[in-house]
Amino acid sequence: MILEQITLGNFRQFRKETISFADGDNGVTVVHGANGSGKTTILNAFTWLFYNEVDFNTRPDRLASEGAMAAADPGDRVEAAVEVEFSHDGVEYFAHRYRVYEKQEAGDFDGIRVDQGVEVRRGEGSGLDAVGNPEETLDKVLPERLSELFFFDGEDIDELAGIDNQEQIQEAIQNLMGLTILERAVSHLDTVAGRFRKKVNEHADDERSEIKTKIENVKNNRDSKQDEKNKAKQAKQQVQSEITEIEGKIQGVKDAERLHNNRKRKEKERESELNNIESVNDSLRSTVNSHAAASLAVPLVRATAKDLDEMRKQGKIPSGVSDEYIDSLLDGQTCICGRELEPGTRHYNHLQSLKGDTVVDGVEQTALQIVGHLRQFATSDDEFETRVSTLYDDREDHENKLNTLDQNIAEIERELSDIEKEGPEGNSVSELENMLQKKRSEIESISQRIGKIIKEIKLLKEKEKDLTREKEKIKIKNEKARVRKAQKQAAQEVKQELQTTFNHLQDKVRQMCNNIIGETFNDVASKSLAAEVDESFKLRIKQQVGDQQVEVDKSTGERQIASLAFVGSLVQIARRRYESDSQTQYFSGGIYPLVMDSPFGALDKSHRREVSRVIPEMGNQVVVFATDSQWEGPVEEEMSEHIGQQYWLNFDSGEKEGSYPQTRIKNDRMRAGGD
Amino acid sequence: MADKDDSEIDLDEEALTRIKRRVLTAEKEKLDLDLPRGINNEIEKIITEEVTQ
C-alpha cells in the first residue's frame, strides 16, 4: 500500500487541508507542528478513515470543526470528512468517510449527527468505480489488527519493549507475516477434528459385534436343531425297522398271516382315502377362494340385471337417436340435413324405416350388453354352487369309505389280538400286536417331534435372514464411521503440519527480526547494549558484562529505540517477503507505510541522531510528525536528504473575537510562519 | 475422548495438500474480511469434500 494524499474537511481544527505523501527513494514525509497544532489529529484522521476509530484526549465526540459550526446557522448542516487517495497492488483507491451534523441553535458547536458513511472507489487505468463493501475493502487493504504497527504514537511506542508485552510482539510478528492465518487454521482444524471424532464415536462398533454374536447364536441353535432332527430321523428309522420285524413275526404265525396281509391292504386303502380327502379339500379351497367374493355379490347382480332390463324395455334408457326424434322429423317434413320430406318419397320412407332400429345403437345397446354380462355372471355363480356341492359330495363319499376302512382295520386288529398262538420267538400274536401298536405310537410321536423341529429350524432361518439384513445395514453405517475417521485423521494431520510450519516460521521471523534489530539497535544505542526478541517473544535489552550478556533495566529512550527497531525490522521483513519470489500463501509479507507521531519525543540528542539515521530505512514510505524542537539539529541533519515532502502546521488558537481554533497546512515554512 | 479404534488410515497425500491449500485460503479470506464466523463449518465442508472414502 502506498499513501498518496490525505484531505481533511471540517475535521477538528482543519477546515480544508491536504497533504501529499512522498514515496520511493526519498520516501520520507515530515509534518512539522507545535504541540496542539494537530499532529495527533492527522494520525487520528487515518484511523478514523480506515477503521472508524479515533483517540482524542479532548472532546473526543466533537469531530466537526468549531469554525465551521460557528459559521453555520441553526438548522444548517456541516460535514466533517477525511479523504485518502492511495494505491495497493497496482490499483488506485479513493476513500471518503464523512459525518454530518446539524446545528441546533446559536452557540451549538457539537450539533446532532444526522448522517454518516464511508465510500470507496477503486480502479485500474481509467476512472474509479464505487465498491459495494467499503469497510471490508479498507480492512482488506490495511487490516485493523495491523493498525497499531503502522499508525503509532511515538510516546507510546516504547510500550512494546515493556516486560509484559511479549504477546503484543508475538501477535505483531504473526500478523505482519501472515502467520496469524496459520495459527487460526491450527486452532480451527483442531475444533473440526473434534467434530469428526464425535461423529466417529456416534457410529460405534458395539452394534456390529452385538449383531455378529446374535447371528452366531442363531446359527449354533439351528445346527443343534438340525442334529436333533437327524437323530429323530434315525430313531424313526430304528422304530420303523422294529415295526417291520414285528410285522414279520406276526406274518410268521399261520392264522395271523391272512389277517395281517388284509390289514396291510386296508391300511393302504385308508392311506389312499386320506389322500383323496386332502385332494378334495384342496379343490374346495381353490374354488371358494376364486369365487366366494363374487358369490356374495350374486343376489345384487341378479337384481341389477333385472332392473336394468326392465328400464330398457320401458324405454327409460335414452338412445343415440330415439323413435320420438324420428317422428318429430317426419311430422315436420324436414330432415336433419335440411331436405324436405314429403310422405311417400324415398327419403321419407327411408327415415321411417329407421324407427325401431335406432335403439340398438348407443346407450341402450350398452345396457343390453351389461344385462347380458350380469346374467352370465349370475349363471357362473350357479356353476360355482354346483361345483362346490359336487366337491362336498365327493368328500363325504371318501370320508364314509375311510370310516368303513377304520372299522375294518379295528376289526382285524381285534381278531389278531385274540390269536394266542406264539410267533417264531415265543411271543404270542396278541403280544406282538401290542408291541406293534406301541411302536406305531412311538413313530407317531417321533414324527410329531420332527415336524416341530422342522418348524423351529424354519423360524431360525428366517431370524438369521433378518439379522443378516440388519448386519448389512450396520456395515453401511460402519463404512460411514470409517469415512468420518479418515476425515478426522485428515484434519489432525493437516493441523499438525501447519503447526510445525507455524512454529518454524515464527522462529524464523523472530531470528530475522533479531538480525535487523541487532544492526539497528547497535547503530543507535550504546555500544555495550544489545536488543533481541527472545524465545518467549519478549523484547529484551542486554548489556555485555565480561563474557556474558545480562538483561538490564532500560531507559525510556532505549525502550523507544528498541521498539522502533523492532517495528522497523518487521516492516523490512514484510517488504522483503512481498518482493521475493518465494511467496507462500501464509507467509506473504506486504508493503506498508509507517505513520509515526513524535518518534523522537523521549530521546536525547545523540539518540535522536541515530534514530534519524534509521527511520528512512524502515519502510518505503515513512510519515513523521515532529515539533520544531524535536526536528532541529541532528534529526534535520540526518533526515533532510531523505525528505520527499515537508509540511508545516500553522495553528491559530482562535483567541481573537469571531475566530476559532484552526490549523492550516503549508508546504512552505515561511508562509506557515513556523517557529 | 479416546477413539474406539486408533489405527491409522492411509490418506491420499494430494487430498491432504488440497485440504491445506483450501483451508488456508478460507482462513485468509475470513481474516482479511475480519469475519471469522462460520470458518469451522467451512473447514468441515472442505475436509468432507476431499475425504470421501
Task: Please give a structural write-up.
The complex is a heterodimer of chains A (675) and B (53). In chain A, 60% of the residues lie in helices and 15% in strands. Chain A is α/β, with parallel strands linked by helices and 675 residues long. Among the domains of chain A are: 2-142 and 593-672, P-loop containing nucleotide triphosphate hydrolases (Rossmann fold), CATH 3.40.50; 205-253 and 419-475, Helix Hairpins; 287-402. The longest helix of chain A has 96 residues, at 429-524. The two termini of chain A are 34 Å apart. Residues 671-675 of chain A have low confidence and may be disordered. Chain B is an all-alpha fold. Chain B contains two helices and no strands. Chain B has helices at residues 13-33, 39-50. Chain B is elongated, with a radius of gyration of 14 Å. The two termini of chain B are 23 Å apart.
Outline of this structure?
Chain A has 675 residues and is an alpha/beta fold. Chain A has 18 helices and 15 strands.
Task: Please describe the topology of this protein.
The complex is a heterodimer of chains A (675) and B (53).
Chain A (H helix, E strand, L loop, with lengths): L1 E10 L2 E7 L7 E5 L6 H13 L14 H6 L5 E12 L2 E12 L9 E12 L5 E2 L3 H8 L5 H4 E3 H4 L8 H12 L1 H24 L3 H47 L1 H60 L9 H10 L13 H9 L7 H57 L10 H96 L4 E5 L5 E7 L2 E4 L4 H24 L14 E4 L7 H14 L3 E5 L1 H4 L2 H6 L3 E10 L9 E5 L2 H4 L3
Parallel strand pairs in A: 3-13, 3-14, 8-12, 12-13
Antiparallel strand pairs in A: 1-2, 1-4, 4-5, 5-6, 6-7, 9-10, 10-11, 14-15
Chain B lengths: L12 H21 L5 H12 L3
